[in-house]
Each structure stands twice: as structure tokens, then as C-alpha cells.
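[Discussion] Sanity-checking designs against the backbone

I'm trying to build intuition for which residues belong where. Below is a C-alpha cell string of 223 positions. I'd appreciate it if someone posts a full sequence so I can compare it with mine line by line.
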């Protein structure tokens, strides 16, 4: 695959982060509290699959591994789109090898609505960009997307799923994504490490997992 949704979001935070993901992933340091948030987000996403009733999940793993078989997921997704499956979860798409898997696609009279699930109490701009990337890939694959929603975590634990309509904002990122996706694809493949000075991007919107690598003298600075 070329650029995935995760690649794009991380590369737009910091191009060096994406390059390290591809060439030196062993340098990652994921704090336990961050891993706990990631696990909680995955659990919330799994629960959200049933928010509209029966659904079909597209997740397929490579034999004997817990690694998604993206090509098999894309084929399975196309089969369910052709059948008109009402709710498709983890629907996988590829355009020029750029890839995304949508949390939920819900069939409408004219196509599908897109739902991106986030275990957070409010919508953040990076969530909208995330959904915008999916809208970009899916529409370029010929699937008509009507509305785009971010599903946030509401206060009622019995029914915590609160869809927020971000259609206009997500569509507004189309040109921005197109302007950057091809550059990120070229950059991640270059053999030389990308040179980026540490700055605000190291912690905004998330602390980089390579923070220690890029700040080797942070504990002794100023002494």
C-alpha cells in the first residue's frame, strides 16, 4: 500500500514521524497510558459496530497473524457493496494504492453515509481530517457518500454513541488531502532520513512516539 489513513494523519503532523514509521519503527516508545487509550478506543469502536443493528464486518487477517489482509478486505467490501449490504463495518478501499478502512458505512437511498467512531466527548479537528481522508479515498473509488459523521462518546453508557454531522467540513479537506498525499508517498520511500527540527508538532495534536529519539538531551537541557 502507498499511504493509509494513519500514515496521512501522522505524516501531516510531522513528515519525519511517517519516515520513521516506515524505516525505523523499532524506535517507537508508546507510553502505557497512551496504549490504554488506544485499547479503549478500539473497544468503543467494536461496540459501535452494532449501533444501527445487524452489520457485516469486513476485517480479514493474514493466515496465522493479527495483521489485516487489506487486499482480502477490499475484495470483501466490493462484494457487499454489490449486494447492497445495509451496514458495512471496516469497509476497505484503495485508490492508487492509497488505503482506508471506514468504521461504518450505512446505506441510504443514494449511496452510503460514513461514520468515523472516536472515543472522545467532543469532536476535534483531527477527527474531521481523518473522516475527510476517508471521504477522499472512498469517493475516488466511485462510491457515493452522502453525509459524514463523527460518532463521539456521550454520557449515557447504555447508549453512548452520538453522531455529529461534519459533512461540510470533511468534504472541505478534499483538495488539501490531494495536495499532500502524493508528496507524503514520495517522501516515505526516500532512503535518507527526513530532517525536521523538533517543535510544536512533537506534541500537537499527539505526543510523537519518537519523542525520545528526536529529543535525546531533553533531561539535561539547561543544566
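Best answer:
Here's mine. Compare freely.
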Amino acid at each position: 500500500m502507498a499511504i493509509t489513513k494513519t500514515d496521512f494523519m501522522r505524516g501531516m503532523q510531522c513528515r519525519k514521524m511517517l519516515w520513521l514509521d516506515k524505516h525505523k519503527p523499532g524506535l517507537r516508545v508508546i507510553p502505557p497510558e497512551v496504549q490504554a487509550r488506544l485499547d479503549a478506543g478500539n473497544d468503543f469502536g467494536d461496540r459501535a459496530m452494532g449501533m444501527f443493528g445487524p452489520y457485516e464486518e469486513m476485517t480479514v487477517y493474514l493466515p496465522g497473524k493479527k495483521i489485516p489482509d487489506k487486499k482480502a478486505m477490499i475484495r470483501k467490501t466490493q462484494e457487499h457493496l454489490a449486494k447492497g449490504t445495509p451496514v458495512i463495518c471496516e469497509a476497505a478501499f484503495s485508490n492508487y494504492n492509497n488505503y482506508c478502512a471506514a468504521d461504518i458505512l450505512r446505506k441510504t437511498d443514494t449511496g452510503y453515509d460514513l461514520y468515523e467512531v472516536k472515543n472522545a466527548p467532543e469532536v476535534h479537528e483531527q477527527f474531521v481530517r481523518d473522516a475527510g481522508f476517508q471521504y477522499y479515498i472512498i469517493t475516488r473509488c466511485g462510491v457515493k457518500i452522502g453525509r459524514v459523521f463523527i460518532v463521539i462518546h456521550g454520557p449515557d453508557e447504555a447508549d453512548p454513541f452520538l453522531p455529529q454531522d461534519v459533512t461540510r467540513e470533511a468534504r472541505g479537506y478534499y483538495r488539501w488531502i490531494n495536495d499532500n498525499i502524493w508528496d507524503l508517498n514520495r517522501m516515505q520511500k526516500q532512503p535518507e532520513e527526513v530532517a525536521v527540527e523538533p517543535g510544536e508538532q512533537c506534541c500537537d495534536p499527539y505526543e510523537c512516539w519518537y519523542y525520545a529519539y528526536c529529543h535525546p538531551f531533553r533531561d539535561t537541557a539547561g543544566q
